[in-house]
Amino acid sequence: MSARGPYDAGRFHDAYDKVMAKWPEGTGPVTVPTPFGDTHAHVSGPADGRPLVLLPGGGAATSASWYAQAAVLSRTHRVHAVDLVGAPGRSTPAGERHPRTVADLTDWLDAVLDGLGIGETDLGGHSYGAWIALHHALHAPDRVRRLFLLDPTRCFAGFRAAYLLRALPMLLRPTPRRVRAFLDRETGATPLDADWLALQEAAVGFPERRPVTGPRPAPQALRALDLPVLVLVAANSGAHDPAEVAARARELLPRVRTAVLPDISHHALPQCAPAELGHRLADFLTAPGD
User: pTM value?
Assistant: First the structure.
């Protein structure tokens, strides 16, 4: 466990609550015990709605970041937005046991689904969360009905070298100023929500665990994934080449739809995307048949 800077837990939780206040009325928290610790999730939508599990990006994205999509998605689905275990948020790691491999991550998500009483679910993720979601669909395709991936990292293409170089100072010696400067540069002209940005800054120094990293999924495994997948790529993404991500997804996945979202960057998703994003996701998730 690492403490990277002057972390103020009270400030972090206050900022977290301000972002959660943007979720639909009736949203409630739930805690799910897993072998890797207690996982915190937010639940919204009709009790009899089809389950939908949402995974945030890495770093300080947190489950709260889905607020801009929660209202439209929870009209038809029982939405469960999860805080990644070991990352900033309200999930609590279990002692020294924390995910170290992709298999650990898929076991963790299996335990979360079991704890929520979910057999089969729609599943979606952004960035690092999309990487986890894709690996879980490959691990347990019988548990995933439909899968959507928002600007997925290390799924179909690698990071741009320039992006990693810009991120390095923030990762090695994070400060609120460096976090803000990095996000301002990557998101460009996209206006960032002030409360969400305050949450990113308040997470500096959070005692997080080292995230699991690994290679891209094997091409032969992706070609065998027989379920509907939606890949939405940010046109202004600094993380990777958007055209390469979309093209590789089309090449490898047998039942994929891809689209490039204009005028949006990697880190502005999903919280600062236009309403069009929610409607695209809802249309995909509620489409008739398989």
Answer: 0.95
